[in-house]
Structure formats: C-alpha cells, structure tokens
TrEMBL record, chain A:
Organism: Nereida ignava
Domain of life: Bacteria
Official protein name in the record: Sarcosine oxidase, gamma subunit family
Gene3D superfamilies: Heterotetrameric sarcosine oxidase (3.30.70.1520), Probable tRNA modification gtpase trme, domain 1 (3.30.1360.120)
InterPro entries on file: TrmE/GcvT-like
Automatic annotation (TrEMBL), chain B:
Residue span, FAD dependent oxidoreductase domain: 33-380
EC number assigned by the record: 1.5.3.1
NCBIfam families the record matches: soxB
GO annotation (BP), single: tetrahydrofolate metabolic process
Source organism of the structure: Nereida ignava
One protein family per Pfam: DAO
Protein name, as recorded: Sarcosine oxidase subunit beta
Keyword tRNA processing part of the UniProt annotation: no
Alphabetized InterPro entries for the sequence: FAD-dep_OxRdtase, FAD/NAD-bd_sf, SoxB
From TrEMBL, chain C:
GO molecular function, one term: sarcosine oxidase activity
GO BP of this protein: tetrahydrofolate metabolic process
Protein name, entry field: Sarcosine oxidase, delta subunit family
Domain of life: Bacteria
InterPro entries: SoxD, SoxD_sf
Pfam families assigned: SoxD
Organism in which the protein naturally occurs: Nereida ignava
From TrEMBL, chain D:
Pfam families attached to this UniProt entry: Fer2_4 (PF13510), GCV_T (PF01571), GCV_T_C (PF08669), NAD_binding_8 (PF13450), SO_alpha_A3 (PF17806)
Listed name of the protein: Aminomethyltransferase
Gene: gcvT_1
Organism encoding this protein: Nereida ignava
Single GO MF annotation: sarcosine oxidase activity
Domain named GCVT N-terminal: residues: 610-882
EC number(s) per entry: 2.1.2.10
Family: Belongs to the GcvT family.
SoxA A3 domain residues: 511-595
Length: 188, 416, 104, 996
C-alpha cells in the first residue's frame, strides 16, 4: 500500500459543503469513474456486458441508471461512464476490463471529475446555472451541461436531488457558480 | 453644389430652399463602359475613383435596394491600419491615408476622427505578437506605439485593472486610427461620384450575367439588361449569391456579425479599445452611444441578424474590461453579412471570365478598407493591372499556397 | 438556435461549435486526387442563400459531429444527421456519389 | 445590505401633491419620500417617478438632445422619449432612466440630465435659437475647412454636447444573474388578451410563462374606466392574476420585459428584481436575463398611442391622451387642473370623459373630424386642429384653428393628444418579417409570416376593443396548443365598441412640429431629407436621426413615415417601415453579461500542485483558463529574473520539477489506434513499438502546422497523446472530426484525460536518481531498461499506479511522471522531500520557456498558424509514404519556396544587447523597411546557461545563413542590435544529455 495522501480539488482533506436555507451543495469524494467505449463491430457484445453489470439495458442517450455495484450514464454514441463506490477506487478499470474484455475501451476517469450533490429546492438554483429543464426532466436523466462556462455532467436522481460531475481542474469555479446561484435563489 | 459653412448659413437664412438631392435618380442606360454591382461603400468608392482619378466615363453603380444599406450602413465605424502581414499592411495604410484626406476629396464631412485605437495585451505571447505587428506597421510606414499598463491606466482609468481575470499587461496603440461616420461615407462617395457623372441606380437588382464565349457582356437586372464593357462586383456578404450566377464558387462563406450601440452617454471613452482576452471592442460615437461588437456568430447566414449567445459573449467581454458599463443600456443591435474568406484577407482580382472583376472577402474588416478598396478596384478596372498595394489579393493564392492569414486560422472562415 | 440532435433531441446551438460546409466530409481520394481537387475541397464553397448542409460538433454534449441542414436565410433547420452515419453512407456509396456536393 | 446610493438622510416632508386626484391603484397609506434635483417630494406606493412628480405639480423633467428644449412626460410607459432622468447616485447612478416606468420607493433619488446649470435654466438651450442652422445633416456639409480644425475644434465641441446621461466611471456595484426557463406557452404581455391566453393554457395543464414589463399586471385595464363582467377592469385583472397564481404550471413574471425574439423559439427576457427597492440583499441580483425556450408564444404586447405633429407640440404638459388617462385612472394624477384634448378619433373623448369624471376642467376637445361626436360635459370643437402652444417651461395655452383658418388661444396646463394606436408588433419583426399596413386601422399590424410558433392577440394584433382582446387571447392559446375551445367557459362581457382610426399625422403648415421629441427631429427636417433625396426609410432615419433615440422611435417612426409618404405622394405602405430590432426596450449591459465579469469572467483551472505552489509563494500566470506557477521566488530575490535564472541553472545542474499537467492528454484506444494516428500526424506511427513514445506533428488539412506533442504507445491498441496546453480542445475536436467524419470505419475510441493525471516533468542530471527514490523497486528505469522516449505504466511510493514517460522539453535527462490527480499534491511534496539531497528545485513556466528556447524546441509562438513543417525545420517529418491530414496541401509551391522562412537561433554580438521577441530581422547593411524584411523573432529569453539573451527566429533561407551577421530591429520598442544567426539548438545540440 502506498503512503501518499490524496487531497480534494479544493486542496483539502475533507469534502466541501455549502448550505443555504433551501439547498445544500456537497462534494462527494471517493467515487470511482471509468469510461467505457464499445469497440467497433462488437457493440452488441459490449452492451451485453453492460446489461450483465447493470441488470438492465445499457442507458439510452440522456439517461443514467444504477444497479447495486455500478451506475452508468450515457456519454456519447457507444460510450458510457461507469461509477462505483469502491473502498479502493483504483480498482475500477481493472474490474471493468475483466468484465468487458476486448469489447470495449476502458479509460480511468476517477480523477478527471469531482462529484457534487445538490439537494433541496434545486429547480430555482439550476435554472440560474444551466439549461436543463427540471419541470420536464425526471429522475434518470443525465446530460452534459455547461455550468459557469464549464462542461459538466448532470444526473437527476430525484426532483430534489441532482449529481454534478465537474472537471477536476475547474471544480472550484463550478462550485463557486452554483453556490452563487444558491445564494441568489435563496434571496428571491 | 459645393457644401460649406457659408452655404449652410446662407440656406438657413433663406429657408433651406436651395438644397438639391445629394445624387440624381437617373434611368438606366442600355450600355455603360463600366458597371459596378453593389451600391455599398466599396462600390460607390470604386465609382468615385474611376470617375475622378482614373478619368473613366459612362459608369453605373447598380444597387438592389437603397445605397449604403449593406455593411457600410451597419458596422462599428472603425478605421485603422494595424495589420501584420506584408500582403495587407501597405494596403490598409494606403486606405488610412485616403481617409485622412477624404473630406476634402469628397466635399463631404464624413467625420473622420483619428482619436486612436488601442489593442490591449494580456499575456506574454500576445505581447510578442503585438510587438511583431507594431514593428511591421512602422516598417511599412504606419504609426504604432507600445504602451505599458501604467500608461494605459492614465488614459483609460475606468478599465478593469484591479479585479481582472486576465490583467492588462500593455497595449499596441495606433493614434491615427479612429472612427468615421459610416453612413456619411456612402453618401459622400455617392454624391461625389454622381457629380462626376456616375449613374447611381437604386432598386436595380442584378439577376444574372450575360456571358458569351467566356466574356461578360453585361448584366440582367430587375430594370432590364444593361450592357457593360467591364463589370465589377463589390457586394460583400452577397458575393456567393451573386457570383454563383456567373457559375463561380468562391473561397468565401457568408457569416453574420452583430453590432451594438448603447443609449447616448456623455463622452467618457476617448478612443477605440479592443479587449485582448475576450470578444469585445468599443468606441463612443459623436452622439454619445457606445458602439461595440465582438465575434461573428460563427455559422453561415444571410439573415442580417444574430442570436443571444454572441450578444451575451460580447457583453461579458465588455463588463470584464469596463465594469462601469453595467448600468448603461444596450439600445439597438443588428447584424451584417460578412464575406468571410478562407484566409481572412480580401480578393481584388480578375475572374476567369473576361470582363468580369471581383472585389470581396473583406470579412468584418471591410469598412476601414473602403477608400483603398475602391481605389484599387478602380485601378484594376481602369488599367487591368492590380494596384501596387493590392497585388497579393489574388484568387489563385490558395492554389499556390500564398495565403495571407493574419490570425493563423487556416481554411476555416468563421475563425478569422 | 436549437438543433434537434438525432440522439439527444433539441439542444441549444450554443452547446455546439461550427465547422462549415458538409462537403468537408468528401475528402479527396489521396491516390487519385489532383492538386485542383485538393484546392477545391479545402477552399471553395457553395455558400448558398438557402438550404445548407453543414457540420456542427456537439462539444458541450455527446461529442458527436452532426450534419445539419439549415436554411441560411431563415435559419430553419430541416434535417439533422450524425456525421458518422453520413460519412459511412458516403464511403459505401457507389463511385461518383461520394463526391456529390451538398447545398442548394 | 448593499447601499444603493439612495438619499435616505432627508425626511423633510413637503406637502404639495397639488395635482393628486382621487382614486387610482396607489396605496395612500404608504407615503414615500423622494428627491428630484435635490428637492424632496412625496408620493405613494404604486406611483412611478413621473406620476409622483406630476402629482407634485412638476411637469418639467428633462431636456431634449439637440435643442435642449424643456420637456415633460409624453407617455406613461416604456415608450417615453422625454422624461429621462438619472436614478440613484454614486456608483449606483443609472443614466437615461424613464421616469414613466421607474417605480417609486422611499428614498429614491433622481436627477435631471443634459442641462447646465439647471433644468429650469439651461445654457445650451441657445441651440434652439440656432435651430435653423442645425438642421438634419448640417454637419455633413460643413466643418471641413481647414482640414485640421475638424478634430481639434469642431468635433470636440460636438462631442461635448453628446449624450443625455453620464456614466460615473465606477464599476457597476450590482450583480446580475442569467437563467433558463422552458415552457409550452410564453405569453408576452399581461393585458386582457395575455391574461386570457395564459389562463386558457394554464387550465389545460400546459407549462405557461406570462411576462409583463409592468409591475402591475392588467395592461390598459389599469388605465381605463371600464368593466369586465361586473368587475372594474383593474379588479378583474387582479382576480385573473390571483387565479393564475394557483397553478403550479404557471410562472407569473412581472417587471419582466421580453426583449427579443431569437431563432427557434428562444426569447430573451429581463426581470428587474431590485430596481424598485432601495437596497438589495447580499448576493441578490439587480436583474436577471432569462433565456426562455418556448414551444409556442402568444404576443399580447398591446399598442402604443401615436401623437399628432403640430407646432411646438413638445412642451411639458403636452401628452398622449391615453397617458393622461393612465395618470388619472391608475395613479390619480393630472398634469394640471385643466386640459385640452386634441384627437383624431374617439379615443381622445374617452380621456376627456375620464378627466372630467376626476374633476379636471376640460377646456375643449379639439377633434380633427368634422363629424366628431358631441358631449354634454365639455365642449367639442369639431373639424379643428391645434396649431401652436405657449409656455416656456410648461404649457399654458393652446392655439386652436378651424377649417377657415380662424385661430384662438385656449388656456390650459395640459394637452392630451391622440392620433390613434399602433399595435406593438416589435417582437414579430425581430426575425426579419416586416409589418404590413392595415387600411381599416390606418396602422401597421403584424406580418402574416410570423416567427415560427408565434401568434399575436389583442391590441398587438389590431384588436383594439377589450372584448376583442379577451377573445383573441383565448383563440391564440387554443390554436397554439390545440385546445378545443368548445370545452371552455363563456367569457365575461366587455367593452365591444367598434374602433376606427383615421390617418391624421400632422397639422397642415406645421414646421417646428416635433416627430422625434428626444432627438429633436421635426417635420421640417423630414422635408429637408426629402428635398435632398434621402427618401428611402432607412435614409430618412439615418439622415435625420429619426427614431434613433433611447425610445427607439416608438412614438416617432410612424409620424416620420407618414410625413415622408405625403411628400413623395406614396401610400405609407409603399414607403415601408424600418426594421424593429432587439432589444424591445434598452437593456442594461450588465444583465447581458451576468456573473461573467471580474475574476469570474472565465472559469479558473487549477493544476494538481496549485495549493502546494501557493504555499511556496509561487507567482502565477494565466495560460488560457489555467493558472500556472510562473516562478517560485525564494528569500532575497527581488526580481523575477533572479528566480528564473536560478531555476534554470539548478535544473540543468541537478534536478528540477515542473507541473506540466496542463498539456492536453487524449486517450486513444482501439485496434486501429495506430492507423488512426498515422492519419492525424504527418509523421509515421504505425511502427511505433509498445513502450515507446514519439514526437508527432499534426498539420491542418491546409498543410500548416496545427499542434505538436507526443504519442506514447502503452499497448498495441492503446496510445496516450499529448497536445500543447493552448490547443488541447481544438486538437481533440479535430481528432474526433477525423475519426467520425473521415475514418468512420476505424476501430478507435478517444477520450480526454487531461485532468485525470497530475503530470510532472522531472529534469536534470539527477532526475533519474530522484525518481528512483519514488518509483517502486520492481520497475527498472535505468538508461538501458528505460531509454530516451520510453514509456510505461509503473507504480510509485509503494503501489500507487502511475505512468512514466522519458521525454524531454528542457533538453536534460528528463522524465514525465503522471499520477492520479488527487495524489498530485502529495506526489509533488514527496519529490521535494526526496529531492532535498539533490537540491531539487521547482520551476515555473518562465524557466520552462527559457530551457525550451535554449534547446530550440518550437512552442506556441512558433506554431502560430502560419508556419509549415518546413519553416520549423521539420520538413522531413512529413511522410511521403502515406496520406495524412495536410500532407497534400503542404506541397503547394508557395509553402516550399527556396527562400522560405526557417527556424534559426539568434544571439547578440554584444552579449549585453537585448533580443526582442517580435523584432524584425534585417540584413546587416542596407535599408530598414518592410521591403527588406528578412524575418522575425518568435521567442526570446535570457539564457543563464549562456550568459546572454537568445532568440528563436524565422528567417528567409535561415538554415543557409547560420553564422551570418544581421540586424535585429524593433522600432516599436526603439531597439536595434547586431545579431549572429546560429543554430536554434543553443544547448546540447547533439542531444547527449537527454539520452544520458
């Protein structure tokens, strides 16, 4: 076991939280992420593996779903992002490679993204930061969105709960943008 | 009729009865020596110089709507000659010199105002590039001045020096740059051309070219066929549409560029400023409006209107650079069709069709080029050889690899 | 503008970046093309006032390249396809079809 | 609480709402104190600044632009040209604000504009005396001699007179938000038609947004004395708003102006959140720009009353008759205790009746129509016109002239003018559709070719009766949303009087009759414009400035068109109309920018070692959106050069570490990965062995160098490609283009991993020694096992997965070590700890730049988008054995000339001389000008290794000029030095160090 200590994107040991009267934005550390892209010509086989792992069909465009171990969202044609709460997040690529074999290209993404959970009255906040329509989108929706000029992924878990994956290097700006919107929404 | 202060006073005292139309409204003749298609700034300037400088007779300018209604009537009025490349700088410097004598040449006050233009620098690489550019300008006989951040702060104290995401590190100034009352440029050239016998034919749309045996004999128009010895096309954003009638495909795409003006404000901005870390440039008009713009919308369009993302992008740049303008109000926005070329530089050249000449590809820089473009096009039309400052503006430069690419963006017009 | 993405449905065009005429899909055959073919491919455009087939990249989305058929006068969008599908169609077209130009 | 610069010190009460009538939708239990030009007044909650000032007997509120004529409000809405003031003070001062829409709040502070020394006495009013000289376009005809005088004398005078209000020069202290909303139906305007459209859609279950610029919904219903069913119109409107409030699928947005129609159903709307408040809460936006995505839109924007032009029709006290009615009915205010009404239609009579009911004396109703209806309560003078007015700072008399030319003066402090109503078609024409002339209404109505999915209802569609408005609102919603109208309840009874409008624009013989009141465009100016040939609508507008003022011509364009039509003998429809463009009303630039200003202009990207570098006192620099450590000053260093020189020398003599995470990293996988890279790089990649890295040059299709980087082959089907920091996004997009559009049948997958890995360059003779202390023992990184350009997956510090690349930008023995980003901080600290024995030195982007220049590596300054592989001295890299992007067009003759630019090095002959990046290179002898230009310096640096400045330059035939003496000039920075052309590889040209 190595002896290096990880830090968050904010340079801290502990996750960051921001709270207003109506919302909470909380950083969620230690979520393992890996992208899975079907190899050409074997996408059926790849999807079969996904079905096996998720116990459901591979997520459609603009969708995500969860099983007991993995959850996955659609990133692009024949491409998904898998996530899992592993005790040792370093495992994810190795595990997925074992499952997918030669049917998919797996790329480590754990450190590329910082995940935030926004909970509470999220509609009033999200309408100030990105174009997703919380009135017509429901749980299970996943999409890349632009928050504070930064491409993020947004997953709707419930009408009062969304997950945001922000690129690690600009996670501070994304957090800042959302928290400003939370303050603004709370003041209205 | 000569315009003068004396004339204005005389007319004021006699009920303004003596003013005559600034240009005639003649019927088209069946044949002209030279027909210019496009009654915009470039077309009218071409006619003026053809008649006045190159001694040509029997000239007509054909305009499908009303003159000055294209980009000369919808730009942000900036003149400058701060170009980098040898193919461009002498031409734009020639243009600036023509601007400097324009009012006397035309007997029309187009309000050429050399209040200076400043390109701001925000990074070391940008500084290196601007120093190279400033040197190229000076080596070509133009003026350029390097300013450090402190000097800029003295002249423009309201710029964001203390809270900037991309701090101002310096600037390249051209004091001879400035602004011109854009509509008056079209009117001044039209009035002068008309006084030299040029027929300005409004509401005369070209619907086709008559081409026989590789030679252009004239144009079909909404007012009938008009024969011509030579036909010069100067229709900017409509270049693709027009030249397709002659069977030509061009190294040009038409894009929309939006421009903006604020409500009138007391003078606060002395010169033209260009933000180097965002898409924003601004000047203040003699009426007090902040005239500003930014990037093109980025997609092919003939619609003369743009969309919100670019409006926001420009205003973001404005607020980042000059946070005092937050409470000023945007009064009007509009769009012009830009003839974006494949290397960001124009074309003034013969076509492969005898007697058919082309002037276009001005991107969003056509206004400042108006006098030199007209002069150089007149030179080409009258003498059949390019003007010395415009020799690089050839069609075949893309075949030979002699692109004139100021921004280094390659064959993608919306990036120039 | 709103682009009706074939997989994702309506998306704001601000999420996309624009490249230009979809004829850029028709890259000349390196074995047979003449210098003029390369010049025409890289530099000449129909630039129509009307229907225009053009390439957009969904940078703020699924990273698909799309072929969008849009009217350059009204901005109306009449067709949106995945560029990859179009490109595959071109590749499998019989000879000659692949070099057909777009636009109206 | 933020202080909005309002006046809240004075609570000296003034009594004197001498023109306050009874009634109105104001709260008399909430008196509000405010100041205008320093004088304190009182109004009520529900007032606008204009209504409150009028109540206090103040008619004079502004001065016109050109002639500085005294002006009072013409209207009661956002179309106001005259009553324009500055609101608040200090940095919060807001110029050019309409008193007619500014909501009164306690402590409001307003100041008049464009006058000196005071509003009542304005020295610049002298212009009015010279108006005969200052006609339309006079400035184009004069100020030309002598040439130099224009800019030195004339223009400064003109400029000084420019503008109405002033900016303070201070940063806007407010914050603004931007947001997105989506709906099935957007209803623009909450008058009778808008309320019905919204209600109809709401009850059918659709997502509805209804927006109105006013703070009170109801539109004209708030201004009229009329009934809907058995309710007063204003009460009915309030009950409808309350009803809409019960629906969760309805969003009611008051104080929200829909400013523009954009493509495909996107609307811009500005909500004014705190403009009506004295102060705002911390973090509360002043305004919000909403981008509303509407599947359907019903435009219910109402109509704007149009004036009639007659001599001196611009005095304070002259108003649109409908505005007078608004003041009387909605605010319980009149401009004076007596009034004359001048009308060409029945609507003027409505004003007379309402004013009379409120106790205002009606001196007469002057009706242009010979068959004008009569009234019991007041005199109607049929077939007459108003021909002149009197009153220096406010109206006191009106001249009335009958058909025979007989004139008389009527005393009155207010004059209501009604020329009929123009539908507010603006949003229908934002996409280019021109409104069409309607003969029955004598007005322009919306074009039949509306923007897709938009319909128009109510007065905006020309339905000028309340009954028509209610019905058309319902109809529009039903049609848009396919609601069956038979399912709907019957509508209440409403005013259904037929509305006719005559075409009466201008009283015969008028000259000094204002069309555009703010810009001082008179009938005479339009005549002059016509006389000089500026007859096209756009020429008229541009020549006279008609309609170019802050009111955007809402009350003036029609009159100008009509006068021009009369002069040319054409019907108005043939003269045409000018285009309406966004925004519908002038919009604060701040709200269009939102939060993207100051430090939040762009997002910030931080490297994994950022917090560590900050601790070390690093100086940071913006590189795109990244913040990178530029250098790391240590104690005693006072100049950046000291730090940079030290970092370079320490690296070259022992070992240095630099965070190079910002380089783009693209993961390329698939069985065809090598084939694919062979296509995008001009040099070959097919045969690159697993475990090896290769430098690659990417060309654009036009043959110009686009980017360079490395590709490391981690497995047969797996590469990691690096790009320059600046081009990471662009290269990824390009590679996706090649993958999806040009090579759709290759098995290759791409994904960016830039931020996943913290990547550190470890460079210098002790680089290996340092690395060996952190790389786990099972990985042999000796020169034999891990030679120059090797790469591989390793573990460090006891099992952390990592990647190691033996590549060198500095020219030293160097490695790049990548670890998962969250361990980047710890990894850097570990390298510093373990490197202590080697005096390990962190270095920043400056030292990185110095070392790459010393080594002659091209970077962004050299890859400037115009340079070819040949220019860079890499011509041989372009493989002829295969096709790659750009290879064919790179062969063009112009890109391959004998005397083409080549990358060389420059050193000053005098070691103390400066090499200036951006300097131009000339022959040693001969003229210095553009014609003799030999090239330019792309990059320059002081080389602590060599002890003098060095530069990289592109010089014509450069590779044949090594050893030549040349001159480097930079006239811009006033330097000229002698230089020697040398190899660009200043340090270790044989590359022995990096292979060590």
């Amino acid at each position: 076991m190595h002896d290096l200590t990880p830090i968050t994107a904010f340079g801290l040991a502990e996750p960051t939280v921001f709270v207003t009267q109506s919302c909470q934005l909380a950083e969620r550390p230690r979520i393992a992420l890996a992208s899975v892209a079907a190899r050409l010509g074997v996408d059926e086989a790849c999807r079969a593996v996904i079905t096996d792992l998720l116990r459901a069909d591979a997520p459609d465009p603009a969708a995500w779903l969860a099983s007991d171990i993995y959850s996955a969202f659609w990133m692009g044609p024949d491409q998904w992002m898998f996530s899992a709460d592993f005790p040792d997040v370093e495992d994810i690529v190795a595990r997925l490679k074992t499952s997918f074999g030669e049917t998919a290209s797996i790329t480590e993404q754990t450190d590329g993204w910082v995940s935030f959970d926004l909970t509470g009255e999220v509609e009033a906040v999200l309408e100030l930061v990105c174009s997703v329509d919380m009135r017509t989108r429901s749980a299970g929706y996943a999409s890349r969105v632009s928050i504070h000029h930064t491409g993020c992924f947004l997953l709707i878990e419930a009408s009062d709960r969304v997950r945001v994956y922000a690129p690690r290097a600009s996670a501070g700006s994304v957090f800042h943008g959302i928290s400003q919107a939370m303050t603004s929404a709370a003041a209205r | 009729m000569r315009y003068s202060g004396f004339k204005v006073i005389k007319e004021a005292l006699t009920g303004h009865k003596g003013w005559r139309p600034a240009w005639r409204d003649p019927e088209p003749q069946s044949h002209y020596d030279i027909v210019i298609i496009g009654g915009g700034g470039h077309g009218l300037a071409t006619a003026h110089y053809l008649a006045k400088i190159f001694g040509q007779k029997r000239i007509a300018v054909l305009e499908k709507g009303w003159i000055g209604g294209g980009n000369v009537g919808r730009n942000t009025t900036i003149i400058r000659s701060n170009y980098l490349l040898d193919g461009n700088e002498p031409f734009y410097e020639f243009s600036l010199k023509l601007w400097e004598g324009l009012e006397q040449d035309l007997n029309y006050n187009a309000m050429v105002s050399q209040r200076g233009i400043m390109n701001l620098i925000h990074s070391d690489a940008q500084r290196d590039a601007y120093i190279r550019r400033g040197n190229a300008m000076i080596l070509n006989g133009a003026d350029a001045e390097y300013m450090d951040a402190d000097q800029i702060r003295k002249e423009y104290p309201f710029l964001n020096f203390d809270d900037a995401r991309f701090p101002i590190k310096g600037g390249l100034a051209q004091r001879r740059g400035g602004t011109v009352r854009h509509d008056a440029v079209a009117w001044g050239y039209a009035r002068s051309a008309d006084s030299h016998g040029v027929d300005i034919l409004q509401n005369c749309e070209v619907t086709g070219f008559r081409i026989e045996n590789g030679k252009c004999l004239g144009v079909e128009t909404s007012r009938g066929f008009i024969g011509a010895g030579r036909v010069g096309c100067a229709v900017a954003g409509s270049s693709g549409r027009l030249m397709s009638k002659a069977g030509m495909r061009l190294p040009i795409e038409s894009h929309v560029l939006q421009a903006f003006v604020s409500e009138g404000l007391k003078p606060i901005l002395p010169g033209v400023i260009t933000f180097g870390a965002g898409h924003f440039y601004v000047s203040q008009s003699d009426k007090g409006g902040l005239v500003f713009g930014g990037d093109i919308d980025g997609y092919n369009s003939y619609a003369q209107r743009g969309n919100l993302p670019v409006v926001e992008d420009v205003c973001e740049g404005g607020m980042a650079l000059m946070p005092m303008i937050g409470r000023a109000r945007l009064l009007r926005m509009w769009g012009g069709i830009m003839d974006m070329s494949m290397d960001g530089s124009p074309i003034i050249d013969r076509t492969h069709i005898d007697g058919l000449y082309f002037n276009g590809g001005w991107c969003y820089g056509g206004f400042k080029a108006t006098p030199a473009s007209g002069y150089a096009f007149a030179h080409l039309l009258a003498r059949d050889i390019p003007h010395p400052t415009a020799t690089a503006y050839r069609f075949d430069r893309f075949e030979t690899g002699h692109m004139i690419d100021e921004k280094g963006m390659g064959n993608q017009p919306n990036l120039h | 503008m709103i682009i009706n993405h074939p997989l994702l449905g309506p998306r704001d065009s601000a999420e996309f970046t624009y490249l230009g005429d979809a004829s850029l899909l028709n890259r000349p055959d390196p074995d047979t093309a003449t210098p003029k073919d390369w010049h025409d491919y890289a530099y000449l455009r129909d630039n129509p006032a009307g229907l225009h087939r053009e390439l957009w990249f969904h940078e703020g989305g699924d990273r698909s390249w799309l072929v969008v058929t849009r009217n350059t006068v009204t901005h109306e969008i009449t067709k949106v396809e995945l560029a990859r599908d179009v490109a595959r169609g071109l590749a499998s077209d019989v000879a000659g079809m692949g070099t057909k130009r777009s636009g109206g | 609480m933020a202080d909005h610069g309002t006046n809240h010190g004075t609570h000296h009460r003034t009594h004197g709402q001498i023109n306050r009538l009874s009634g109105g939708q104001i709260d008399r239990n909430k008196p509000l104190s405010f100041t205008f030009d320093g004088k304190t007044f009182q109004g009520y909650h529900g007032d606008t600044l204009a209504s409150a000032l009028l109540a206090n007997g103040v008619r004079l509120m502004g001065r016109s632009f050109k002639y500085h004529r005294p002006r009072g409000p013409l209207t009661a809405g956002s179309e106001e040209p005259n009553a324009i003031v500055a609101l608040r003070s200090g940095a919060y001062q807001e110029p050019n604000t309409r008193a007619t829409t500014a909501e009164l709040f306690d402590g409001l502070e307003a100041t008049s504009q464009n006058r000196w020394p005071s509003l009542a006495f304005d020295a610049m009013a002298i212009n009015d005396r010279f108006s005969n000289f200052l006609t339309a376009g006079f400035y184009y005809k004069t100020f030309m001699w002598p040439a130099a005088f224009w800019e030195k004398i004339y223009e400064p005078i003109i400029r000084k007179a420019a503008g109405l209000g002033a900016l303070t020069g201070s940063a806007d202290p407010d914050v603004y938000d931007k947001g997105f909303r989506h709906c099935d139906l957007l209803v623009v305007g909450a008058g009778p038609s808008g309320l019905m459209a919204a209600r109809t859609a709401a009850e059918a279950g659709f997502e509805v947004i209804i927006a109105d610029e006013d703070f009170r919904f109801g539109g004209r219903l708030n201004s009229e004395h009329e009934f809907i069913g058995d309710q007063a119109g204003a009460d009915w409107a309030a009950s409808q708003v309350a009803h809409l409030g019960t629906f969760s699928n309805v969003r009611v947005m008051s104080r929200t102006t829909v400013i523009g129609t954009f493509d495909h159903g996107i609307y811009g709307a500005v909500e004014r959140v705190t403009d009506h408040l004295r102060t705002s809460a911390e973090g509360q936006p002043r305004q919000i720009l909403w981008r509303i995505y509407a599947k359907h839109t019903v435009l219910c924007a109402g109509a704007t009353e149009r004036p009639i032009a007659f001599n001196n029709n611009d005095r304070p006290g002259v108003m649109l008759a409908g505005a007078m009615r608004s003041y009387a009915n909605r605010w319980g205010v009149s401009a004076a205790r007596d009034a004359v009404i001048f009308t060409s239609n029945d609507d003027g009579h409505r004003t007379a009746a309402d004013l009379h009911r409120q106790g205002v004396a009606i001196a007469a109703v002057v009706d242009t129509r010979a068959d004008a209806p009569s009234a019991h309560e007041y005199a109607v003078i049929a077939g007459t016109t108003v021909t002149d007015t009197r009153g220096r700072l406010g109206l006191n008399a009106v001249q009335v002239t009958d058909a025979t030319g007989h004139s008389r003066w009527l005393k009155a402090g207010s004059l209501g003018v009604s020329g009929g109503w123009n539908p507010n078609v603006h949003l229908t024409s934002h996409q280019g559709a021109r409104p069409v002339w309607n003969d029955a209404l004598n007005a322009f109505v919306p074009s039949p070719s509306l923007p897709p999915h938009m319909s128009v209802a109510g007065a905006a569609a020309g339905m000028l009766s309340t009954h028509g408005a209610l019905h058309s609102g319902v109809d529009a919603a039903c049609k848009a949303l396919e609601i069956d109208p038979r399912t709907l309840p019957a509508l209440p009874k409403a005013d259904d009087r037929p509305v006719t409008q005559s075409a009466f624009w201008c009283v015969q013989g008028s000259e000094r009759a204002w069309l555009d009141q703010q810009n001082d465009v008179t009938v005479k100016d339009v005549k002059l414009s016509h006389q000089e040939g500026f007859r096209a609508v756009e020429h008229l507008k541009r020549y006279t400035t008609l309609g170019m003022a802050t009111d955007q011509g809402k009350t003036s364009n029609m009159g100008g068109l009509a006068v021009m039509a009369e002069l040319t003998g054409q019907p108005i429809a043939d003269v045409g109309t000018t285009m309406f463009r966004p925004p519908y009303t002038p919009t604060a630039i701040g709200v269009l920018a939102g939060r993207s200003r100051g430090k939040d202009f762009h997002p910030v990207r931080l490297t994994p070692s950022h917090y560590w570098a900050k601790e070390r006192g690093a100086v940071f620099v913006e590189v795109g959106n990244w913040l990178r450590a530029q250098w790391f000053p240590i104690e005693g260093e006072t100049h950046w050069r000291q730090s940079v020189d030290r970092e370079v020398l320490a690296t070259r003599s022992s070992v240095g570490v630099c965070d190079c995470t910002t380089l783009g990293k693209i993961d390329v996988q698939g069985t065809d990965a090598a084939v694919f890279l062979n296509k995008v790089y001009c040099n070959g990649f097919a045969k690159l062995a697993v475990g090896r890295t290769r430098y690659g040059l990417m060309l654009r299709e036009d043959g110009i160098a686009m980017d360079d980087g490395t590709a490391a082959r981690l497995a047969e089907d797996h590469f990691v490609v690096t790009t320059t920091t600046a081009n990471a996004g662009k290269v990824y997009q390009h590679m996706e283009f090649v993958r999806q559009c040009l090579c759709p049948d290759l098995d290759v997958q791409l994904i960016s991993t830039t931020e996943s890995w913290a990547q550190y360059a470890i460079a210098g003779p002790n680089a290996r020694a340092l690395l060996q202390k952190v790389v786990d023992a099972e990985f042999d990184i000796s020169n034999d096992a891990f030679p120059f350009m090797a790469c591989g997956a390793i573990t460090v510090c006891g099992g952390l997965r990592a990647r190691l690349f033996r590549i060198s930008f500095s020219g030293e023995l160097a490695f790049e070590l990548a670890v998962p980003a969250r361990y980047g901080d710890a990894m850097m600290r570990r390298l510093m700890d373990e490197g202590e024995e080697f005096n390990v030195t962190p270095y920043g982007t400056e030292a990185l730049g110095v070392m790459r220049i010393e080594k002659g590596h091209a970077a962004g300054n050299e890859l400037n988008g115009t340079t070819t592989a040949q220019n860079l001295g890499l011509g041989r890299m372009v493989s002829k054995a295969k096709d790659s992007i750009g290879s064919k067009l790179s062969e063009r003759v112009g890109l391959n000339t004998e005397d083409g630019l080549r990358l060389v090095g420059l050193r000053p002959l005098n070691p103390k001389d400066k090499i200036t990046a951006g300097g131009h290179v000339m022959s040693a002898e001969g003229p210095v000008n553009a014609a003799h230009d030999q090239g330019y310096v792309t990059s320059a640096a002081y080389s602590p290794t060599l002890g003098n400045m060095i530069g990289l330059a592109f010089i014509k035939s450069g590779s044949e000029r090594i050893g030549d003496r040349m001159r480097l000039v930079s006239p811009l920075t006033k330097t000229s030095v002698e230089v020697e052309v040398v190899s660009p590889h200043f340090v270790d040209p044989e590359g022995e160090r990096q292979r060590a």
